[in-house]
Amino acid sequence: xxxxxxxxxxxxxxxxxxxxxxxxxxxxxxxxxxxxxxxxxxxxxxxxxxxxxxxxxxxxxxxxxxxxxxxxxxxxxxxxxxxxxxxxxxxxxxxxxxxxxxxxxxxxxxxxxxxxxxxxxxxxxxxxxxxxxxxxxxxxxxxxxx
Length: 146
Known about the structure:
Elements: E1 2-7, H1 11-23, E2 29-34, H2 71-79, H3 91-111, E3 115-119, E4 123-129, E5 133-138, E6 143-145
Helix pairs in contact: 1-3
């Protein structure tokens, strides 16, 4: 079984986790997402809660996956019909979209029997491991061979 680690809790890590789940539908992979202590997919950039903290890209240009253009704006349009595709929307809204996009992918993968481990801890070391490839150790001393 392939063991894959994704380190980081922001949108880039969420996109990698999501893309693996979208592409890999078999049970021969285990994902270990060492996501830190924040809300998964938000990172620092999309944890901002003030509406004046806006995206630096228009809503129509944002999304989580390259092959799903306009997904963010479609998500927003169902919740804020007054929003326009050309708007620079609040950063928190993108964080909401990432969470709403990723959660069902993780749930569906688990229902298929795929192993998706989300760790609420920070990675503190990545070391080469001749037997496995790498060993990722978190702040609690737990490690996984990937």
